[in-house]
Amino acid sequence: MRGRLAADSPGFLFSNSWRSPRSLRFFRRIFRYNTPEKQEGGENMGLSAVIDSIRASDVAQTTDSMELYRTAVFVPSGFAEPPVRLSVLDVPPHQPGGETLVLLHGYAANSSWWRPQIPALAQENRVIALDARGNGLSAQPETGYTTEQLADDVAAVLDDLGVTEPVIVAG
User: Fold this and answer.
1) 145 lies in which domain range?
2) CB of 33 closer than 8 Å to CB of 99
3) Which of 54-58, 66-70, 98-102 has the highest mean predicted lDDT (pLDDT)?
4) In this structure, are residues 42 and 34 in contact, taking their beta carbons and an 8 Å threshold?
5) Per the domain annotation, does 36 fall within a domain?
6) Residue 144 belongs to some domain of the structure
7) Which DSSP symbol is given to 156?
8) 65-71 long-range Cβ contacts below 8 angstroms, 24+ apart
9) What's the confidence (pLDDT) of residue 117?
10) If DSSP codes are grouped into helix, strand and coil, which group holds residue 69?
């Protein structure tokens, strides 16, 4: 039976330093599942995942045919500088009813590192990945590279995309 992300699950962060089908197999092993049988028995296993059904063929699918990049232009909250152009990948779920996953990359990286995982994650979940300012296809302003500003950028992107429900952040 497939596990599923529980709406009341706490946020879960993991590293995206792996870029292969092997990484998905690793995540599949470490995630705990919250199947209906476990819920009916009164036991809540916490974080659950749709990743239990990922096969290597899911990862082999390319995302090139999807309309991946949506550019959001906005003024980050609390700053008077001109708008910052951020490259945002917003992939709707193939099936309704999933969670919203926000995929973040590390320093000196970009959202394309997530491409091998996106087809499988987008089967049941909305997937949002963005290039942080100064990375990938996003603008490279002279200032605003603090952790707080990067977090404000993510919040502003979610506002711009109309996301109001809790999200699961990975990165």
Assistant:
1) 57-170
2) no
3) 98-102
4) no
5) no
6) yes
7) H
8) 66/91, 69/137
9) 92
10) strand
End-to-end CA, the chain: 27
What gap in Å lies between CA 30 and CA 43, rounded to an integer? 18
The predicted model scores a pTM of: 0.58
pLDDT exceeds cutoff 70 at 131: yes
Q: How many domains does the chain have?
A: 1
- In a domain, residue 77? The reply is yes
b/e for 97-121, b at 16 or more Cβ within 10 A? ebbbbbbbbeeebbbbbbbbbbbbb
Pick the closest to residue 8 from 39, 40, 37 (CA basis). Answer: 39
Q: Tell whether the model's pLDDT for residue 64 goes beyond 80.
A: no
Q: What is the CATH number of the domain that holds 71?
A: 3.40.50.1820
Residues making up the chain, counted from first to last: 171
In a domain, 122, yes or no: yes
